[in-house]
Amino acid sequence: MRDPVLHQLQHKLPFLPGFQFDLDKDLPNQRKSHAFDYSNGVAVFKEAPGIGGIPIHGQERSKIHTSVELYPHSDNAGEGVPAWVAFDRKVLRFYAYFQEAVHERREEQYRVRKVNIYFYLEDDSVHVSEPKTVNSGIPQGTLIRRHRIPKPESEVGQHYTVADFNVGKEVTFYARTFKIVGCDKFTEDFLHSLNINVPENGTFPVDPYTAHRDELKSRMRATRPRPPQTSLKKFLENDRRVLRFYCVWDDTNSVFGDLRQMVVHYYLSDDTIEIREHIPANAGRDSNTLFLRRSKLPKRMRHFLYGHNNESSDGEYFNERDFMIGAVLHLYGRPFVVCDCDDFTKDYYYEKYGVETFDPVRIEDYEQHDSDVAASEIPQNVVQGNYELLLPPSPLTPAAVGQANAPMPTTAVPMIGASVPPKKDFRKLMLYDGVVLRFSAVLRATKQVDRDRRFVVSFYVADDTVSVFEPKARNTGIVGGKFLEKQRIRKPDGVGFYAAEDFHIGAELVFFHHPFILTDADEYALKFMQSHPELFPKQRPADLGTIAQQPSNIKPPTPAPTLHKWQEDVLAQDKPLPAPVTPPRSAEGIKKRVTIVESHDPPTEKREPESLVPRSETNVHYAPAGANNYSATRMLDNVRASAAATVSAQ
Description:
- Helices cover 17% and strands 23% of the residues.
- It is an alpha+beta fold.
- Residues 88-195, 239-353, 433-533 form the DM10 domain.
- This is DM10 domain-containing protein.
């Protein structure tokens, strides 16, 4: 019903566009609904009606349903979360297949292809993938990429939801029908939570061509059988698995050899062996611990001959069955004694071979020297600070000093800092600071290669320290250089250190089991020993030679010049010497210049002026061209004058 007041107001307005209004208020709600809203702080899209709450034409018919409508919701609206948060990374997996027609082939008319259908709960997207089959000849992998797949019979674009997938159902994706025969455990439990009954998993139908190929494979036999190649399988199963053995190599029989500790790594992935040396601190060896590069280790050395097959079988290489504790393995001719292994290696041998006992071999048994000297027989004064006796005996040490050079047990070694350091003689240090006596020495050894070595032994008088240097010699095979660092050296008997009275020519000194014989000394050392006989009581004066007997402040006289035989023949003739004749100088005839150097005056007694033969200072003569006879005569005159001056001086 129209309001009369509004009707009168309508008539008072001009009849022009913009002044005419429909003033009927029959509709209770004239607002326009909005489709974009916020739910729990998240922007969402709502299916809103038209103006006044009246549904738009076709709005109910075109509504697209999602799987969210089927998911269980919480009673408390404030606790709800979006589906893409609640079902993030949650995927349903179904096992399905489809048949593909094959034309113009006798072996098969259709092909059964197995696929996996993945349904993503967060956004109702579907992904179809086909597992790859070996030698199928078909491009396999992803068949349909992940997206919302529309239903073929829907007019408004309705896509597949979770209710459309179940075991035993058929789904059509882009004109290709898939038969679902099973699902995994997570998918089955989720469908049960939605009150959807899930049948039991079925089986895939038999593919005719696959059955045909299996029958052909069963009848195929290799014409040239060969052992199976299991290297890849072995690598995948045993990659990064390494057995570790602790071994000892006794190399004391060789020159400068000693007991060397090795760590053998056996790689289970490819049966290769790597050997690393355990080098203790201050051992004097290079820091490179790699002893053998990782490779297969043959049991015996192979000889390579031209035209012969040198390939070795697996039985000719060391394997894990050869490494047992206590075994002696000859690795490239070197005997290695397996002493122990780590915990992983013990567990591996227990699980695979059932070995339960792993009695380690004591490395200390190899380090002890064969000697009958007991620890109780060693005097206590020898024990204190006698560290060099703990070293392994050198092959240069003679057998006669076996009792004196017997090593002590490690239990008798004093702790660091237990012994009192020797006191320094400051008076001796001030008197003889910088005095170094150098002696030449040789080794007393049985081998010729050691007897030919030469050493320079330097003795520092100020603090009684000794250093040994070996000069480099070509083609000897021995690297020269510093042989022994400057230090105080204890005597072999263990009582006291080497001092000045022990150094003399012919003395035999033992430095760390290396016997040295002093054969000679330099001139400075000989003079020092001659002038300080109280420091060197064992030095015989006859060994010092004639160098030390001469005074050092008097220069020896210059010996008189000796005459040649031809000079004596000239003087025997007793003929007067002709006066020197100066030839005429001509600028055109000067061709050659001859210089006669003045002879030295010998240190003789005072001479009379008449006995001297006059000489010219730096005589310069010019020989014209063609005057060879004159030049020879002039040279003879100069020789006679020089000889006469020598005789008169004597």
